[in-house]
Structures are given as structure tokens and as C-alpha cells.
Design a protein that fits this description.
The complex is a heterodimer of chains A (about 300) and B (about 170). Chain A has about 300 residues and is α+β, with helices and mostly antiparallel strands. Chain A is built from five helices and eight strands. Chain A folds into three domains: about 40 residues; about 120 residues, 2-Layer Sandwich (Heat Shock Protein 90); about 90 residues, Heat-shock cognate protein, ATPase (Actin, Chain A, domain 4), CATH 3.90.640.20. In chain A, about 35% of the residues lie in helices and about 25% in strands. Chain B is globular. Classes of the chains: A alpha+beta (about 300), B mainly alpha (about 170).
């Protein structure tokens, strides 16, 4: 039986190579573009010319070089996010840089957050730790957003390229013990993809918080958390047929098995562990990014 | 989702999104169409007509997140529609008139499996192509075909069984 499977797999693989050889010629792509233009023009005629006006405005903007680019390249801090609340008075979030760009085919809306330590602590070790940790996190965020901006700018030169890139952030936790900043990234080119980063600072030590830090030395927290996630996945799927996770799927390698120490998490306002997955990690892309709050009783006895 | 709200600002966002998808994925649609019609003229027609239909019908696209699946479904339906039409350059007539096919004679087995694949019902064939050539997940295939996952699974099992029998006998 296994041999037969192999034979079919092999044959299908050969056929796939053949299948993949077929590509449209430049001429055919040109015909397709013409057809797309035709379809869009018909719509404009039907819609009171609003489409045409929009395009005309965009074209004028291009001609006049009026792209809206507001990168804060000098490195000075833009205090555009004044509405962001002060967090536990130990750290606060400001906008480090705003990068916006919009043209027919390209759209960028990137707000780079920066965590600022408040210098008013008597405990100088804590102050040093917080300074170091926030500098580390800020550097990571800036490296992520610099890469996204560099990629975006590189793609601007592509004549046919379409792209959207959005970066926002959100303060998730504001307890006296923990501070969590969530960095939300979205990149669209054809199909969009959203992914998140979670940065948690333990405000008592000033250190970055890792999952293992909140559990007793040597305790197995991976199993109870993973099992509870599976339970919740099943529960949600049973409750709503539109919800799907890779759990007992036919294709074994896709199924969610366990979290790792690298899995994203934060502690919510109730102090519960929330596990976050990016699009496509544990569910089909249409499910988006997904989170699971682990009830306190599941981790009873092993939390510090 | 707050992050996506900018899309609402633009009335034509849906159309722009569709155009973007079409211009990025056309080779995928072309390959799919080619595997049904086996000639580049018809495959190209299918992609063009599918693109036209998608853009003209963009109002019926409910959820922008499903846009890619939606376009794929339109292309697949365009393939099915084409197969039902009287053929200009059908697979058979091309063989008769000696048009050059993509198959080369030095690999008879490959031709055999291609024939077996072509002999499957059109939707079963689509499931095999999507699963084995495009690495789509069963859920995505179900979305594209607008069928439930179990139906897709049984299509896949049935097809694999047929292909296997074919290989054993050849």
C-alpha cells in the first residue's frame, strides 16, 4: 500500500512540474491588462464619472509630485499620540515616527511607537533595567518597521506592483505589574497578511517578560496551556460551524499540537495568560489572528 | 478590525483589490485553465473573461478578505463554462489536427496520468489540482467550490483511488 502511495505521489509530483511550466506570455499579460482597464472603464461610465475624477486627481498629484510623505527622518520624537494614556507612570508610549504614503497603487500608514521610561524612580537598578529593556524593545520595533518601509520603497519602483502596508500599536495591559505593547502589522500584496508582536515588561523587575518567568521553576506549563487551547478550539468549532482551527484535521502536519516558549502571549487585566497566534498559524487565513485566554484554574498551582 | 478601516474610505477599494489580485495571480489562473483546455489561446481567453467578470461583478463580493477565493471560484467556473461551449480548439480536435501539445512523447507515463486526471469529473479534477499542484488546504478548496469540507474530502479520496487504479493498470 505504501509503495502504491509513493508511486502516485511521485507521478503527481512530475505532473505538477509540468503543470507549473505554463505561464502567460508578456503579450497575453498585456491583453489581460487591457481587459481589466475595459472592465474598470465601463464601471466609471456607469457611476457618474466619479471614478474618472478620482483618477484625474490622483494623476494630477503624481504629475505635481505631491505624494504625501511625512517620515520623521530627523529622529526627533513626534508627539502625535498625545491621547495615549500614561501607563503605570513607569513607561509611556509616544510616536517615534509617522510614515504615510499614498498613490494609485501604493499605500503605507506606519506609526512607529516608542516606549519611553519615566525618570522618577528611586530604585536605580529598576530604572536601569527599564531603560535597557525599553531601548531593546524600541530597537526591535524600529528594525521591524525599517525593514517594512525599505521593502515598501523598493516596491515603489515596480511598475505593476500593488501594495499596502499598515503598522499600528496598542497598549494591551496597564496593570501596576505588567505593561504590554502590541505591534500590529499588515502587509497586503494580492492577499493581505496580518501579524502581531507582543512586548511585555515586568514593571517590578524592569525586565522583558517571558512565558516561563510567570511559572514556578521546572513546572510544565506547556502541556496545560496547549491542552486548554485545544479544548477551546473544539468548543468554538462546535458552537459555530464557520469557525475552523487546525485541530483534528485530516492533514496531520497542520494540526496544532503544542505552544512553544516562542509563542506570543501577554497577561490581560485579569492577570490571565492570553496566547496569540498569527494568521495561518493554527487556523485557515480567513480566521485572522487568533487569541486564547487561558482560565486561571488551568494554571492553578504552577503560577508564581 | 480598526486596521482595515482605511479600505472603507475608498469606494473603489474592492475593485482595486481585485485588480491587484488578478495582476499578481494570473499565472495561477492560467495554469488552472490550461490544465482544462490544453491550449494557450483558450486558457488566455478564460483568464481574460474571468478577470472581466470579477471586476464587473465586484459588487457581489461580500467580504474583501475572501476576495482571492472568490476570484479563484470565478476562474474555475469560467473553465467549466468553457468546457460546455462548442469547442474552437478542443483537446481532441487538436490531437486530430496535430497541434503541438505540451506533452512530449518521451514520457508516456506522464501522459497517462495526465489523461487519467483529465478523465475525472471537472470538480474532482479541480480538487486534485488545488490540493496537489497548488497546495491549497481542504478548507480553502471547500470555499472555492462552495461545498462543505466533507464533500471535498470524498472528491479527493474518490479521485486518488481512480488515479491509483489507473497507474496500477498502466
Amino acid at each position: 500500500m505504501a509503495e502504491k502511495n509513493d508511486l502516485l505521489e511521485r507521478e503527481l509530483h512530475i505532473l505538477r512540474k509540468e503543470y507549473e511550466k505554463h505561464r502567460m506570455t508578456d503579450f497575453q499579460v498585456g491583453q489581460l491588462q487591457e481587459k481589466i482597464r475595459e472592465a474598470k472603464e465601463m464601471d466609471q461610465n456607469n457611476k457618474n464619472h466619479t471614478g474618472k475624477i478620482r483618477i484625474a486627481v490622483a494623476a494630477a498629484a503624481v504629475a505635481a509630485g505631491l505624494f504625501v510623505i511625512l517620515p520623521n527622518t530627523s529622529g526627533t520624537i513626534a508627539h502625535a499620540m498625545e491621547q495615549i494614556p500614561i501607563i503605570g507612570q513607569l513607561v509611556r508610549v509616544v510616536t517615534f515616527r509617522d510614515y504615510a504614503y499614498e498613490s494609485d497603487r501604493n499605500m503605507a500608514d506606519i506609526e512607529v511607537p516608542e516606549i519611553k521610561p519615566e525618570e522618577q524612580l528611586e530604585d536605580s537598578t529598576l530604572q536601569e533595567n527599564i531603560d535597557r529593556t525599553t531601548a531593546e524593545i524600541n530597537a526591535e520595533i524600529q528594525s521591524i518597521t525599517d525593514d517594512l518601509i525599505a521593502e515598501f520603497e523598493k516596491n515603489l519602483d515596480e511598475e505593476m506592483g500593488y501594495q499596502d502596508v499598515v503598522v499600528k500599536s496598542e497598549v494591551l495591559t496597564t496593570t501596576p505589574d505588567y505593561f504590554t505593547l502590541k505591534l500590529i502589522c499588515y502587509q497586503g500584496a494580492g492577499s493581505g497578511y496580518q501579524w502581531n508582536y507582543y512586548y511585555t515588561i515586568d514593571l517590578n523587575t524592569g525586565e522583558r517578560l517571558q512565558l516561563k518567568d510567570i511559572f514556578k521553576e521546572g513546572a510544565d506549563y506547556i502541556t496545560p496551556i496547549s491542552e486548554d487551547i485545544k479544548r477551546q478550539m473544539q468548543e468554538r468549532m462546535d458552537a459555530d460551524e464557520n469557525v475552523h482551527y487546525w485541530l483534528n484535521d485530516e492533514i496531520e502536519e497542520w494540526n496544532f499540537k503544542a505552544i512553544t516558549d516562542e509563542t506570543s502571549f501577554y497577561l490581560n487585566e485579569r492577570g490571565n495568560v492570553v496566547i496569540g497566534f498569527n494568521e495561518g498559524d493554527v487556523a485557515p487565513m480567513y480566521m485572522g489572528t487568533v487569541e486564547f485566554e487561558i482560565p486561571a484554574e488551568v494554571l492553578d498551582g504552577i503560577r508564581k | 478590525m480598526q486596521i482595515f478601516s482605511y479600505k472603507k474610505k475608498n469606494k473603489n477599494a474592492k475593485k482595486d483589490l481585485l485588480e491587484k489580485i488578478l495582476l499578481e495571480k494570473y499565472d495561477q489562473y492560467y495554469r488552472l485553465a490550461y490544465s482544462y483546455v490544453h491550449n494557450d489561446m483558450d486558457a488566455c481567453d478564460i483568464v481574460q473573461n474571468g478577470a472581466y467578470r470579477a471586476l464587473r461583478g465586484s459588487d457581489t463580493l461580500q467580504n474583501a478578505e475572501y476576495a482571492e477565493t472568490w476570484v479563484y471560484r470565478i476562474m474555475l467556473n469560467e473553465c467549466f463554462r468553457h468546457l460546455k461551449q462548442p469547442q474552437k480548439y478542443s483537446y481532441e480536435s487538436m490531437q486530430e489536427t496535430g497541434f503541438e501539445l505540451s506533452y512530449t512523447e518521451d514520457n508516456c507515463e506522464k501522459i497517462d496520468l495526465q489523461r487519467a486526471l483529465d478523465s475525472l469529473p471537472e470538480k474532482d479534477k479541480a480538487v486534485v489540482i488545488l490540493r496537489y499542484f497548488e497546495d491549497r488546504k481542504l478548507e480553502e478548496i471547500a470555499d472555492i467550490l462552495e461545498e462543505n469540507v466533507n464533500t471535498v474530502k470524498s472528491r479527493l479520496y474518490r479521485s486518488i483511488k481512480k488515479l491509483r487504479v489507473y497507474l496500477e493498470n498502466s
